[in-house]
Amino acid sequence: MISTNYTILNWLRDADVDSKTLLLGLIQSPPIGKEIQEEKFIYMEKIILADNAENEIEQEAEGLGVAYLSNKNGTLSVSLDSDSKWDKTEILLIFRFEQNGKSCEKPVKVKHASKPEHMTEHKIWALKKKSLLGDMVPSLQNLLPNKKISNLLVDNDWIQFREQLKKHPENKNAMIQEMAENVAEINGYQFNRFLSSHNQKMKKSLRFIYEAAEGSQKIYLSTDFEKGAFEVCNYQGKHQGEYNFNGEKTGEADKSGKHNIDLP
User: Fold this and answer.
1) Sign for the pseudo-dihedral over CA of 133, 176, 90, 190
2) What pTM does this model have?
């Protein structure tokens, strides 16, 4: 919508020829950033729309190809909502290439939006992409360096998130696990499957552990499923305190060793 009861498609039908030609030209031949100029030259004509409804002729997908090749594993493509085939949050493409002298092809997907509500589905993905643009790394003094971004997962309202946990006790662990994973990843941590499994066996309790490097040493976050928080451990696995998903410290270091991480 551009204004009340007036969409961009209305504008395309009404607008002067010069403006319409300029807009359609940008759609058909989008600006190419330096990072993919070489890839465009080599590959763009080999990316086609996979789910072409007409299924009669192959439809080159230059704009979607630009989105696929851009910004390390893709950026968001945006379409005019002019046809039902664009009412999707992902578009399937066919990528053709040469490998060992043979012609190959593989299906690839690009994130897509043609309606405002599509952006809701892309929210977590977009926040994770945004967090990659900075160079801030975790430390014991700054555990969640991108918390301004991760707080947007709940629109800066963690009280509401905790209220949802109370309303849905049967889904509490799953909700905490998903949120912990997203917060950790946005703030530069990676899930350590081995340590999680090992400590679950050792401690006889549910453990999901994330790690990040602080210089040559590591920091560990272990998800607290009782409170919906992180138990923080240093490079030796020793507990340093409990912190909410917004980075606020809510508990001191446990000297008993109960919350330590076993590092085999």
Assistant:
1) positive
2) 0.74
